[in-house]
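Worked example 2:
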Amino acid sequence: MPVARIGQAARESVSGLPTAFWWLWTSTLVNRLGAFVATFMALYLTLDRGYSASFAGLVVALHGLGGVLSSLAAGVMTDRLGRRPTLLAAQASTAFSVALLGFMEHPAAIAAVALLVGVTSNASRPAVAAMMADIVRPEDRVRAFALNYWAINLGFAVSATAAGVIAEYSYLAGFLGEAALTLVCAVLVFVKLPESRPERPVSGSAGAADEPAIGLGTVLRDGRFMGVVGLSFLISLIFTQGSVGLPVAMGSAGFSPGDYGLVIAGNGLLIVLLQIPVTGFIERRDPQKLLVISALLAGYGFALTAFAGPLWTYALTVCVWTLAEIVNSPTQMSLVVRLSPVHGRGRYQGVYNLSWAVASLVAPLMAGLLIDRFGADWLWGATGVLGTVAAAGYWLLMRGLSEGDAGPGAAVAVAGGAPRPATKPVPADAEV
């Protein structure tokens, strides 16, 4: 592709988005530039502190459990208190808890604070997604979520490299560095981002009676949306094997940690290079087909690992499922927003994020059980089955979506970009 066309595609990818989005995007980038704890927790506990691999696994699991616990609560806070207060509270408490973790000595204290870090660091996700949906036009949401995902991976690629160097000298400096950058995010939110939560109609005004109250029960009874959550869980079980099953399988095959690092680095590099141009290609295409294709690419991309031999063949499988990730992430996030009522976006995002948090707990158990009892090939076969099931699920779930519901009480954008109310509002409930 000529350089001029590449430049034009890049300009089209970033044009037309509001200033508030770019400040939110900057906050995401800065946050990921400081990612240290989640990446180096196991190495810190085993190499620097001398704890066993079992204890390190327990602490990492507790960190993941914190994300499970905070997903729903943060979603409720996002709707009740607002996006901005939730972001500020999450980022300030994350900075404090990450710094505190660096000074913990007793194993029980380390485990407890790791759980706290998991709670606080995941609490901002529903608010970020809800604010992005508030401030970006429906027709630009796939592009906006793709750009945000690009920032996450760019920040992670830089932070993983820098943090590796920092960890050789001082793990504490890594903890304090993440705390400092998280505080920078909080300052950006406080100074640059206004509250974006849509105002609910005043009781007795036109439209107020037509919009039911949104509680967690509303979300859980939304069959189509919970179907998306279930499919997201299957997809995340697959993608998590890149950091769980793949390093174990490569180690068993005689490869070094450096070999694995080289292979998995291709994942972040490809996302940074391809996310924006691929998004320009998929932005106006049928989301049903995109999600079906991405599920098959993910499942069979990992399944190909069973046939990998030389190092380059492992890298090739990573390229396949990374392409699935590039397509799936912004498309699915846009679908989640599309199915979410305007005044229930926080709760809907919280339940959606729960699928990934639970998968982060289940995926290691799944990988360990299959590899230990049956061998790694069974794990890769299972990913192929999961990808096939997810693809069939997306195909069934999204049939006639443009003519059907889009969430109880929602005002959503359909193909033509015009908002319309849902046809089957759920009765109001008093649940949180």
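The chain has 17 helices and two strands. Residues 156 and 314 are 21 Å apart (CA to CA).
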